[in-house]
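Annex B. Sample input.
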Amino acid sequence: MPATADLLQQHQPDGVPPLTLTGERTLPDLPAENYWFSRHLAAYQWIARRCSGLEVVDLACGEGYGCAVLAERAATVVGVDANPEAHRHARLKYRRAGVDFACELVERFEAECDAVVFLQTIEHVAAPDEMLDHLRSLLRPGGVAYVSTPNVLTLAPAGAARSDNPWHLREYRPDEFRALCGQTFEHVELLGLFHARRLWLHDAALARRWDRCLDVLRLREPFYRRFTPALSARDFKLREGPIERSLDLLAILR
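Annex B, continued. Sample output.
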């Protein structure tokens, strides 16, 4: 378990209170968390390229970094999160024209938009079918929803039905997630997030038991202390199958 100091965001702008990593959501500006942050960031960047000129709502926006990414292309972005601490942090840190934040339960938020983003959160929701109905209600005609969730087939330990993440109420296989989304949306496109570049090479090395060499040489901790902070969104890639082997599932819903 990282020391308490390692769980607090580093180098925040003046006047912006740092957030503490709890495991419920990922955070930028934490070297030990950079794998998970980069994994989330890759999805936001992919979506942002498809939101040029649109009015976008980012539900369960957390720290707010995703709103900043979406705002690089979108006309406007509203980030919605019920956590007062996260809302205050995001409002102070990501000040720019066209970006606003609302401290509200995502189920109660109402505003028309061209695209709604709901990433890595539906696994926390007790009534996911109702949540998807709410997403659809926010969209203007022709709008699109982007919804992602971890793939339980790769998240859970081998042979286990689910992961040990205490925040997750339900975890999905690709067929289960597609069926859930299809109950509300007529058109469901499902992509998978995979390792790329450095992480692909890392996976290939692990398959050859390279980690044993690290242990023998007592280099595991020094290696990952440098490797993990060096990762970026470019070390992940969204694409079609084999989706059963993907890390995360991204549904594009119309």
